[in-house]
Structures are given as C-alpha cells and as structure tokens.
Amino acid sequence: MLQKTIKEATTNDEKAIAFCLANIRSNNLYKKHNTEIEYLINNKKWNYISLEKYKERNTWGKMYPLINGKESCSVFISYLSQFVHGLSSSNLIYEVNNNHTFNELIGIGITFLGKINDFAQNDFNIDKKALMHNFFQSEFGKVHLSYVTPEYLESFLESIKP
C-alpha cells in the first residue's frame, strides 16, 4: 500500500513538473532567453539574480525584502524558516518528569505571537489595542494567559491600560 502511495505521489509530482516546464517553455520570455532559462532549469538555480546575471545567486537575506520591501516581513519569514528546516525544536531538551520541559516551546510560541503582532501592525496598520483585545478574548488568548505567573499577568495588564 505504501509503495503504491509513493508511486502515485511521484507520478503526480512528475506531472506537475512537466506542466510547469511546458508553461515556462511556452512563455514569451523563454523565447528570448531560452539558453539562460534552460541553464537555470537544468542546474536547479531558482535563486538567480536576473536573467542577465543568471549564474549569480541571490542570498536569502537579499530575497526576503523582495516580497514586499518591509523589514518586518523579512524578519518574519526568516523566523519561519526554522520550522521549514525542522530546526525550531532541534536543541530542546525533553525530560518528561521535569515541569520546565516545555518552557522553550512556550517561549517560541510567545516569540511567534510577537512576530505576528509586529507583522499585523507594521504591514497592515492594525492597532495594537485591537489586536490585544481580540487575542485575549479568544480561547488561544485565555490559554496563553494560563501559562504566565500572576505577577507577570498583573504587570502586563497594567502596561496595556489606556
């Protein structure tokens, strides 16, 4: 059953690749730059700088700002890359009998919330108070509050008063 599933997935992937290549090769840009584009396809060089500089590669740091030019987007996407590469929990210590086992995970979650907050405020101009109000009214917000100490909660609530 697993072999059949893998074979079907491979066939679907090959069809998707063939579809993409057919569309690339039928594009007017391909007709003008077929040598460069074939080089990029054959060498799997998707992060080229331009068709004029097709053998030069872009770095991640230079590509992130191309999405929308905003620093918060660049920082946010860079942050998310650790999840794509499986690095987000690679250095965590798991001890099932230790109450502090998941402090690191909670820290990552809080950092993630902060990045989303920055992204929403800077890129979509959503007011911080509206974000906070809506978040803490949600089930996620209520659960989030259950992880903090009473002292921290009191200090936090004091800091967001108008």
Computed CA radius of gyration, to the nearest angstrom:
23 Å
Which residue ranges are poorly predicted, with pLDDT under 50 across at least 5 consecutive positions?
A: none
β-strand amount: under 5%
Order of helices and strands: HHHHHHHHH
Helix/sheet category? mainly alpha
Specify the overall morphology: elongated
Ends apart, CA distance between termini? 61 Å
* Tally of alpha and pi helices: 9
Biggest sheet descriptor: none
The level of helicity is: 55-70%
According to DSSP, the number of beta strands is 0
Q: Mean pLDDT, as a whole number?
A: 79
What does this structure look like?
The mean pLDDT is 79. This protein is mainly α and 162 residues long. α7 crosses α8. It has nine helices and no strands. Helix content is 65%, strand content 0%.
Task: Describe, in short, the structure shown.
The protein is mainly alpha-helical and 162 residues long. It is 65% helix and 0% strand.
Secondary-structure map with pairings?
Blueprint: H1 2-25, H2 28-32, H3 34-42, H4 60-63, H5 71-84, H6 103-124, H7 128-137, H8 139-145, H9 150-159
Key phrases:
162 residues, 0% strand, mainly alpha, single chain
